[in-house]
Amino acid sequence: MKKSSRQYYFLLSGLFFFFFFTWSSSFSLISIWLEQTLGLGGMDTGIIFSAISIVALCLQPLYGFIQDKLGLRKNLLWVIGFLLLASGPFFIFVYAPALKFNIILGAALGGIYVGATFFSGIGALESYIERVSRIAGFEYGRARMWGSLGWAAATFFAGFLFNINPNINFVLASCSAVIFLILLCFIKVAKIDAMGQLEYGKASKLQISDALGLLKLSQFWALVIFVIGVSMYNVYDQQFSVYFSHQFATQQEGNKMYGFLNSLQVFLEAGGMALAPFLVNRIGAKNSLLLSGAIMTLRIIGSGIVDGPILISTMKLLHAVELPILLIAIFKFISTRFDHRLSATLYLVGFQFVAQVCASFLAPLAGYGYDRIGFADTYMIMGCITGVFMLIAAFLLQGDKQIKSVIGGVVNESVTH
What we know:
- The protein is an all-alpha fold.
- It has one domain (about 5-415): MFS general substrate transporter like domains (Growth Hormone, Chain: A, Up-down Bundle), CATH 1.20.1250.20.
- The protein is about 80% helix and about 0% strand.
- The chain has helices at about 5-25, 30-35, 40-70, 75-85, 85-100, 105-120, 120-135, 140-165, 165-185, 190-200, 210, 220-230, 230-240, 240-245, 250-285, 285-305, 310-315, 320-335, 345-370, 375-395, and strands at about 405, 410-415.
- A two-stranded antiparallel ribbon has the order 1-2.
- Strand 1 (about 405) and strand 2 (about 410-415) form a beta hairpin.
- The chain is globular, with a radius of gyration of 20 Å.
């Protein structure tokens, strides 16, 4: 790896690490915080997650198009960085009092902040770094691995610190954001613009019509069908911490053990991020997507079948296998089948946006299911839905032997070997 590539790798890996550290410190125990600190039930928590999803689904297409228009400039990342910086004060002085005063008001405020900062911000950051990785010559998965390590590092202490005072985690989130902003300062815009010319050459200026043209492509809709299925993992994870903590004699023990479990999962996930590119390159983007979906189906259904903290933990840890394959494969699928200029739009709309649309509808229903029929039965239903969509996607997604590349709205057939 050349010196300039190493510099970009370390700086961008650092952005991932501290973005996820901030996100994990603020949000990894959010369901436990809502239940134990604020006294909210499953239905109320579902409404809160739905509000976050609704805001995210409104902003993700906008973030994607803005980032594609900006190319490799950092303007949007600066906005996200300052939103990260506000995480501690927001959760302590705005979000908690608002939720205690009125659940709808609190859900709306939280939806705006969390949706804009984390659930939309991560897509913009991931698509930005993936684009630079292709130009600079390093594997995206190696940089994304540091995001997983950042989440794991924060979560390892989150349960313990939560039992002392939940606000400590929120303060750490803002401290982490300071380092994110410092690292962002060291990324030289001029150099990245020059690298951007290597990728795009004299490509025509991106227009809204280019983005809207995606709606005419069959593979875009095939990708949407797949994402509807895998979007269930967001809903599954939202209140899993509550289910897991109830497996222990006391809430305090459950909180601490969930922190350790989540940390172990994400450490394993980080290793998976380093290894997943080899698997995806070997079996192809479509097969990798379907493999991740199959593992996800097994994980969700298995969580409804098994009993006890050890077996439930085993099911949860399958996420560390599934997610790296999914993230690497989704970018591989996008980069080999669509116009490179629209990579951020495709990722934020075709993946993140669709997932949030589904989560906005499913989160309250899942919360209702948890309250009425219990977590196990609700997980069984969710897993079966995921499995059905994976079967449909298997017939619709295009294989790697015949790839459609979209340039300037024209679809060409090409064959890869």
